[in-house]
Every structure is written in C-alpha cells, then in structure tokens.
Design goal:
UTP binds at residues 14, 190-195, 226. With 554 residues, the protein is α/β, with parallel strands linked by helices. It has 19 helices and 23 strands. Helix 1 runs parallel beside helix 3 (72-80), helix 4 packs across helix 5 and helix 14 (362-374) packs across helix 15 (384-396).
Amino acid sequence: MKTKYIFVTGGVLSSLGKGLAAASLGALLQTRGLSVTIQKLDPYINVDPGTMNPFQHGEVFVTDDGAETDLDLGHYERYLNVPMSRKNNTTSGAIYNNVIAKERRGDYLGGTVQVIPHITDEIKAKILSLSEGDQAPDVAIIEIGGTVGDIEGLPFLEAIRQLRTELGRDNCLNIHLTLVPYLRAAGEHKTKPTQHSVKELLSIGIQPDIILCRCEQSIPAEMRRKIALFCNVDQDAVFCSVDVGNIYEVPLRFYEEGFDQKVAIMLRLPARNANLESWKQLVYDCAHPQGKVTIAIVGKYVDLKEAYKSLHEALIHAGIANRVAVELRYVNSENVDAGNARDTFEGCDGILVPGGFGYRGVEGKIEAIRHARENNVPFFGICLGMQCAVIEFARHVAGLEDANSEEFNPLSDHKVIYLMTEWFDFRTKHLEKRDTGSDKGGTMRLGAYPCKILPNTHAAAAYGKEMVEERHRHRYEFNNAFRDILADKGMIFSGLAPDDSLVEIVELPDHPWFVGCQFHPEFKSRPMHAHPLFRDFINAAKQRTAGRQHIAEG
C-alpha cells in the first residue's frame, strides 16, 4: 500500500490546536496497526525557528539529526513515539532558499522562476519525500501552519491542492480545523466563522473532506447537520474537538467521536480495531495521582509557558511514572537574589533551571542553585542550568570568586564555561557536523550525541546502562582546564563524551539529588516512557515531600 496523505489546515484564528489534533489522529491510526509520520509546513520566512525569540514562537524543538524545528514536532514525537527529523519540518524561508539556490546554479535553464510551478513544486517535493525509501509510512499527516487567509500560506495551500489532483482522492484527505464559538449570552453555538473559513478554502480550490470543530462543549447533532450542509461535507464528517483538562485525553475523545474510523473509511485504510489500552491507562494514571510535588522552574521566559513546552511535558511524564501530580511554580530568574531565595522557594520540593541564552537573569539562576545545594533541595540543571551549577560551585565551594561563563564575562580569570577556540576544527574531527543552514544555528552543537555514564552515580542509577544518546543545543561547553579543581572539591563528572573530551553530566554525591546535564533530556521524554533523569528527579522531590510530611506529623 502506497503512502496516504492527510492535510490538516486551520481557520478563523491561530492556536486552535492543529498540532495536537494531527498528533492525536496519528496516535489513533497507530493503534490500528498503521505506521504514521507527521510533517509541519510553516509559512514564515525564517529558514528555521532556531534564531527566533521564544517569546514570539515558543520553544525550539531539536531532532536527532540536529534540525531546529517548530514545537509541534515535540507533540508528534510524544504522541507517536517516533523520532522526527529535518524532513518533518520546513518553512517558506527554507523553500525559497532552495529555489533561489537552484536558480543561481542554473537548474532552471534560464527560465522565469515563479511561485507556480517552482515554489509549489519544491513544497510538493518536501511532502513526497516522506514516502521515499524502504520504510515509507502507511500514512503521512501534513499540518499547514498559520490560518487560511494568511497571504504567506497561499503557496502551501496551492501545493496541497495540486497534490490532491495528482495523487487522487483515494490517497489524499483534507481536514479543516475551525472554531465554533459558544455565545453564552445567546445560549448557542455560532457556525458562521466556520462557514466563512471553508468559503476561503473553496476560493483556493480546496474542498475539505472533514470538518473538525474546536469548541468549549460538544455541538448538538442539529448544528453538525447545519455545518455539513453549508460546508458541503458528509453529515458524519463533522466532528468536535472539545476542551479537555489533560491533552492526553484527546485521542480517546476523537475515538469516541468516530474520527479515526471516518478517516480510515475515506482513505480506504485496512479495517483494524484500535487498541487503546495504553492510552486509557495513561489517562487513568494522570487522573489518579497518589500525592503531589511542587517544582520551581527558574527561567527568564516564564511569561510564555510555550517556551518550556517539552520541559513541562517531561515533568508531567515523570509525575505519572511516580504516581504524583506535579505542580509547576514558574519563577522569573530576574527576581531572585540572595535575600529572597528562601522565601521564593518555600514549599518547593525541587528546583529546575532550564536552558536559555544571554546574561539576563543568570545571577538569579545561580542564587536558586545555591539555595538548592545548601538546603538539600533536589536540583536539576539543563544546558545553561548545568553551566550555572558549575559557576555556582566554582564560586562558592571551590573559591573561584569571579568564576563565570565566557558568554557572560569574557574577561573573567576563571572561565569555567567557555566557547572552545578550536570549536570548528574540533567539531569536524570529533563530532558529526550538522549545519542547519543558518549562520547562527550552524555555530551550535545540535542533535544527538553519545554520552558514557560513570558507574555508581545518580546518572547511572537513572539510565541503568553505560552509554546513552541525548540531544544538544548550545554553543558553550565546560572548560576542561577546571575539571581537576572542581573534582577535588567534590564535583563528579558522571557523563562524558566517549573520548572524555566533553563533560555532559555533573552531580554532587553528598546531596539527595543534584544533577546538571549539558544536553536537553526533555526532548526524548514520552508520556508512557518518562525520561530517566526526570523520573528520578521527581522521585527525589517525592521523597523530600514524604520527609517533610513525616516531620510535620512527628
């Protein structure tokens, strides 16, 4: 069976949840025994999200092959448990970049380069690349970013219109996600936004096969019939995507609606029963925790929770694994200092310092780490969080008072974190070069790299094996010139590159749980398979909670 394509578009407004809808549908098709992949097409002109401010676009998700991608790829991986790659995300900027490069090389033989056919052909090639090779998926879901009516999205919509004609109706399906608002004053749902959104699609030449209605509460059958009539779809092809308290309920809600069944019928997919036991168990475990822990996330992007989306989910996964609810307390690191740290973290069972770039808020992160170290609060530092832990230890334990990162103070005499002067030669000799195509992105260490684990450490207890692979996104590294100095004061380097050249994990042995890692473990956490480091971090927080309760009761 050749690959079937499902195109997901959105209407009325953004943030309706196309990524979650696409991932949930993919998960349901997986439970029917089908292999599934998902691709995100983003209309913005950036080549990739790697240089975009998290306040504008949320987190940058990183794949094993070093692609900096849209955060929706995190949803895809978490729901499908299938690794994504640079093939799974492209942008208008990348498309135009490729076409212009071809024009400069003379690939078009002097012809006039136009949006149609050259840009649309490049988009179609990106989509069809998903079915290349021996492991072509049964189903490829293509999510078109933005909203129907956005001028920058028109080439993508034209490309999928053409593919529908070229591949045939039995091999392509158009799903349109739109808003059906409920007006409380009138006491009814309103379908006009959906009608106008579908009209916009029709003007481009795309007739949706299925309408997925985003709504606060389920739409009555009469209203669904009205939508079907005015939008020219089957009456049984109008479905609801209702607000839920837990995003992992969405696949089950879609199944109850018969969403995957309709998709399977329309694409003539094999008739197999869905096995939803693992999803039901997941939702049950989420709803029935046996305790609670409070984790402080100390960062500078806390005003936009999407900036830490994978981190948030990884903590939830770890809570499920430990049968506890994880309450997140977001703390702006710019507001933390030595005078208020104790009050700020009162009642917290763990402190996590995530990654980031730039000096703003760094001293607050260092004070938060000092509080965790001196008060035996479980601590987890990720990327910049690990680097701040090294700086804090160097200053307050090793006595290197001006210890800092070269990123923040290049004049420091003790640059315990630095940009290796031989970085580019080193990367070429020791690490597989992965260039994202952007000047800034190309200077970072990106993607999955191996890490060997030192026995009898927190890292070894978590992973249970000697070698792991984790994903990186950073420019600065631990300065090996200070390895012996910090080791003499008690710091353990429990994770190293296979040739011992790079420090990947640090920890303190005389602490309940104090671990920092240079990589981003949150990218590999899954709802049914919590990442080992997050799992053990939450377990340490759980033990601290139990200890405090025992003291209170005593």
